[in-house]
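Bumping with the actual sequence this time:
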Amino acid sequence: MDKKKTILVVEDEKDLLDSYKELIETAGFFALTASDGYQALDTLSKNLGNVDILLLDLMMPGVDGLEVLRAIKTNTGKYGDMSVIILTNMTSESVIRESFSLGASSYLVKTDLDYDGLVKELNKYVGEPGQL
């Protein structure tokens, strides 16, 4: 039996974080959570090599999502190498460009996305389908 793919969800709004965690687990993945950038980096370093996808909000207190993205992509030895899907409501072209230039795999706008769309996007990066 294959090990479940692990997704770290980084979201500072608790209701959204809980909702994404439930969705991800219902779709057959294992979910880790972090409510800010500091927790995200700590969780990644403690689970080195075990996180398959980072689902990352950009607007967070403390260390924002772009700083987290920059940190992990410039220090894969400490944080691991995984696909990073940005999940935010920021639609600025410059932020989108910066996200991709820093190494994001995908950029999703929360208000444009339903749960099926999120699961479909996650499946693109894990090589095995999760189902709702």
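The tokens above came from a reply further down the thread. Strands lie at 6-10, 30-34, 53-56, 83-88, 106-109.
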